[in-house]
Amino acid sequence: MEKVKENFYDNMNYWGGQHKPFVFLIDFECEKPLLFSFEDSKRNLLWQTPLYSNFFKGKPATKIEVWEIEPTPFRIYKAGFNLIQKHIQKGDTFLLNYTQPSKIKTNLSLEEIFYLSSAPYKVLLKDKFTCFSPEIFVRIEDGKISSFPMKGTIDATTTNAEELILKDTKEVAEHNTIADLIRNDLSMVADNVKVERFRYLDEIKTNRKKLLQVSSKITGELPYDYCNNIGTIISKMLPAGSISGAPKPKTLEVIRKAENYLRGYYTGIFGYFDGKNLDSCVLIRYIENQNGQLVYKSGGGITFMSDCETEYNEMINKVYVPIT
Q1: Is 167 helix (H, G, I), strand (E, B) or coil?
Q2: Of the chain's two ends, which shows fewer C-beta atoms within 10 Å, N or C?
Q3: Is the pLDDT of residue 3 over 60?
């Protein structure tokens, strides 16, 4: 398995050095990475970034008429939550992104959801999953690398929602931790790393409600020959800090124990390299086809200050389709 991964990143480096456009998918476990030339990506993969796409953006012909959620039972969620808290108390982790699957029932297919959803990044791996992600992983533009960790979500209709999310002690601590983790990750591949914007708000409209999401912007400068090392740059920062936690290696061990399921491509990475610049996202807001049953995977960050019921409700709040 290690050799497969090595060849994958070597191929990214080679195509990057050739300035050949390509598209890639990397699963959370980094065991089933996929690499496509731009043209070949059209066969099994539909995708969109803020600047590019490989499909015709027609007006959706369908609407969401049925949307029923069957989340992981609270007792199962709580068992994983309690295990995480024990590891936090032991000092194994101080921030962990805890996720669980929810079964959904809808009148729409994966492909219909893909076309209906509105998001900066959209991905459809045919018959496997669709994703409509608001979260950038990294962008590379003219040698400058930027990351935009997203941590903190609140119902936009909550009274004083902006003030509550920006002043919440748990959310502030969590975001500080992730910003520091991402800054360290970027420092492995770039110089002059700095936080350019800290904890700004974006509004997301969904089929259920409006949400406010908190993000930051962290940047650095890559070496002049970065195109020859695109795969190496990406591999050094995986998995994304915002959907794993800190410290990363030990936290990943705790995630496997607490979640008790494979994330697959959920919380993995999608990206497009245009021959010079790269744009990529974290595969969140994600629906998977499991033998005909649609499953929505979602979660949030857990710290020693987290309340189990609040985190459980946040996980459910993230089971939505973004619509215009």
Answers
A1: helix
A2: C
A3: no
